[in-house]
Structures are given as C-alpha cells and as structure tokens.
C-alpha cells in the first residue's frame, strides 16, 4: 500500500493583526500536516484561530510568518492572481452562512466557480446539473436561494464547492445553521466525498460531530495547536460496512 502524501502542510505559520497599538495573534506558530484523503476536524473556542487557519489554507489570506504548502506548492508568498488560480483549481469552500448569490439560481451559483477558470458555458451548465443531481437537487436547478430551505442551500454550496473538482474541501461550520436531521444529511454528503478521495477539513465547535466524523481532531487555543486526538470515523464506519479509500 502506497503511503499517502501530505496535501496540506503548515510550518510555523503565524497571522498577526494590528489593532491600534495592540497586536492580535490569530495564529501563532502552528505546525500541521494533513494527508491526502483524510477527514480532519479543527476544534477550538471562539477566537482560537480556526477560521483564520482555514482562510490561510484556502488561499484567501497569506500568513504574517511561516510557510504553507498546498499539494507540495508553497502558497505563502504568491500574488493575489496566483492565489485565485490555486483557489479555483485546488480548493472548494463550504460556509456556515452558505454564501450563495441571491439573484442567481442554484444552477448559476454552481456554475460560477467554473466561469472564473474560463470554462465554456455549455460545459459549465452540464457540470452544474450533474453536481446538483449528485446532491439530490435536480428538481431545484432553477430555484433561487430565497426559495430553498437551509439544508437545500447548503447542498447547493456543496455542489458549488465541487465545481472544479478540487482536491480539498474546506467546510467552515457546515452544519451550524441547520437542524440536527439536516446537518446529518450534509455530513453524509461530506463523508461520501471523502470516501471518493477528497480531503475534507472541517472547522467546528461541536465535539460530538468532530469526533464521530473525522479521522483526526486538531485542537486550537489562543492561536496555537493545543493537542491532537484521533477521531472515530473509521470505527464508526467499520460497524456498518468497509470504507474504500483511494491512496
């Protein structure tokens, strides 16, 4: 069996913000390695640096100090245009507040990331329809976000995150605005993507969710990596059926 390589590496990564005369250390020297195909949860109280770390990994921001490798490429000092290309090709985002554009249909929202990479309209539509069918929303393609339930909007967001077939899915509190039943369904979609080889990095404050659905839980406190614990995802799945993983 081939050893999976690290798809994400953070080496002494820090992110500081100047607030008047004060310096806020959102992240302060974090070292972290994530293997390709893992399902990772990042836990920590409000203000611990969870979302800051996700934004750095997702090329939405650059570190004050340290180095970030995404699939072997140093993304720490790239230009904004270079970061935009990395985001488009390598990373898909799922947000707690869905972040759908209200005046675009579900189909158009899913098509949007592909437009930024210059894909032809016909291919964008075909791919978007395929993904909306994948998340069981084939009958909602022409609905606007305001016509969808919270769970349906989050499933549109999942479909959008897959538009350019990224290697990494970053999910920031993906069930935070959902009821328990709908949240479980969203997690099932994320697990299915993980079983297909996608690397999932999920930020959450829900301990039960983090432990049950992840391979590893990283705990942040005051901008530092406080501890690392094993998740129960493999144990949980082994009680139902074997999970095939791509190496």
Fold blueprint:
Blueprint: E1 6-19, E2 22-35, E3 39-43, H1 50-57, E4 65-70, E5 73-74, H2 80-90, E6 91-95, H3 106-116, H4 121-134, H5 150-161, E7 168-172, H6 180-195, E8 199-203, H7 207-213, E9 216-221, E10 224-230, H8 233-238
Parallel strand pairs: 3-8, 3-9, 6-7, 7-8
Antiparallel strand pairs: 1-2, 1-4, 4-5, 9-10
Please explain how this structure is put together.
It is a single chain. With 247 residues, this protein is an alpha/beta fold. It has a single domain, classed as Rossmann fold (3-Layer(aba) Sandwich). It is 34% helix and 28% strand. It has helices at residues 50-57, 80-90, 106-116, 121-134, 150-161, 180-195, 207-213, 233-238; strands at 6-19, 22-35, 39-43, 65-70, 73-74, 91-95, 168-172, 199-203, 216-221, 224-230. A six-stranded mixed sheet has the order 6-7-8-3-9-10, sandwiched between helices. Strands 2-1-4-5 form a four-stranded antiparallel sheet, with helices on one face. Helix 5 (150-161) runs parallel beside helix 6.
Number of strands: 10
Query: What would you say the CATH architecture is?
Result: 3-Layer(aba) Sandwich
Level-1 CATH class name: Alpha Beta
Tally of individual helices: 8
Strand order of the largest sheet: 6-7-8-3-9-10
Report the β-strand fraction as a percent range: 25-35%
- The H-level CATH homologous superfamily, spelled out, is P-loop containing nucleotide triphosphate hydrolases
């Amino acid at each position: 069996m081939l050893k999976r390589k690290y798809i994400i590496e953070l080496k002494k990564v820090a992110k500081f913000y100047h607030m008047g005369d004060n310096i806020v250390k959102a992240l302060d020297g974090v070292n972290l390695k994530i293997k390709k195909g893992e399902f990772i949860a990042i836990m920590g109280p409000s203000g611990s640096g969870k979302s800051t770390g996700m934004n750095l990994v997702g090329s939405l921001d650059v570190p004050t100090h340290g180095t970030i490798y995404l699939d072997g490429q140093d993304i720490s000092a790239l230009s904004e245009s270079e970061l935009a290309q990395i985001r488009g090709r390598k990373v898909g985002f799922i947000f707690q507040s869905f972040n759908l554009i209200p005046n675009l249909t579900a189909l158009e929202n899913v098509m949007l990331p592909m437009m930024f990479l210059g894909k032809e309209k016909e291919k964008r539509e075909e791919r978007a329809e395929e993904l909306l069918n994948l998340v069981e929303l084939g009958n909602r393609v022409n609905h606007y976000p305001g016509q969808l339930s919270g769970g349906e909007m989050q499933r549109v967001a999942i479909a959008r995150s897959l538009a350019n077939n990224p290697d990494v899915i970053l999910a920031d509190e993906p069930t935070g605005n959902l009821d328990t039943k709908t949240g479980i369904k969203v997690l099932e979609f994320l697990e299915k993507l993980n079983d297909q080889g996608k690397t999932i990095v999920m930020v959450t404050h829900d301990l039960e969710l983090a432990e049950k659905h992840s391979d590893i839980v990283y705990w942040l406190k005051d901008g530092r990596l406080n501890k690392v614990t094993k998740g129960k995802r493999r144990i949980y799945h082994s009680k139902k059926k074997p999970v095939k993983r791509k190496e």
